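Good morning C.,

I know you're traveling, so I'll keep this short. The sequence:
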Amino acid sequence: MAAVSKKKQWVDNLVKDEIVKTVLTLIKNEQPVTMDEIARQSSVAKGTLYNYFKNKKALMQYVHQTVLAPIRDANKTIFETPGDPIARLHAFIDSVFCIHEDVSLYFQFVQKKRTVANQIDERFDIVMRPLIRFCSQGIQGGSFIDVDPTILAEMIYGTVIGSLISIQSRGDETDKKKTDMKKIKEDIICLVDRIILK
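The tokens, ready to paste straight into the viewer:
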């Protein structure tokens, strides 16, 4: 009985993973994200979709949590692991750049569908709260300048994530292809270091 249950769970996870990939592909290709289209492109019967998710809202909530999970995990690892604060800050910036490549279009799509209050709450929960604690540690340890940790965290957030959002929003596709993301990351690290290090 336990083997059957494990096999069913494994199959369920495969199906759900395929559904998430399909939704992200639809968003990337600027196609309609409907239950019919998700079923068609994921090769899952529409009825099967409803076996897993009672409606589109539930499905999209699952997709959203699936997209957020690696971001939460990365932030937890970076901000809760002891070590040199500067190295951890640089690891955070690296993480943002890696994650940004994978899910930037998804977040653009989501921003159009969610309230500002939802976005602010989520931003605070996933990034700001751990970043504020991290900044407090860096200040107390003498590595970072002694300012309010919330202000410092907001500065880091704006410099790192805000810059990526602005770069992504500017110009046409040819400008985006010419953008040297490695150079931008180096510039952001240099700027953040100059501002926050004692």
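Safe travels,
E.
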